[in-house]
Amino acid sequence: MNRILNIISLTASFSVVMAVLILIQEYTIGQIGGFRKIILTDTIPLRFLLYPIVAIILIVRFFKFHIPNRQS
Asked: Is the whole-model pTM more than 0.85?
């Protein structure tokens, strides 16, 4: 049961960090006028694909999430 709770905690932490990083990108890089207008297809802006990729790279590079070892 503790392992399941730890996995849920890990997932929630990862999600919160990712959301914060995406918001930071949206309100810094996203405010550049020309960047907001770049569209890959007819409906998908570049930022919808780029922000999550950059956030995942930053999380993997600079954050350490771990599940504690099982204690007897």
From this structure: no
The string of pLDDT tens digits covering residues 13-49 is: 899 999 999 999 989 988 887 877 788 878 888 888 8
Torsion of CA 37, 16, 24, 62, to 10 degrees: -110
For residue 7 the two structure tokens come to 């996995």
| Cα 50 from chain centre | 11
Report domain extents, the chain.
Answer: 2-62
Contact in structure between 50 and 13 (CB atoms under 8 Å): no
Cβ-in-10-Å burial (0-12, 13-18, 19+) of 69 comes to exposed
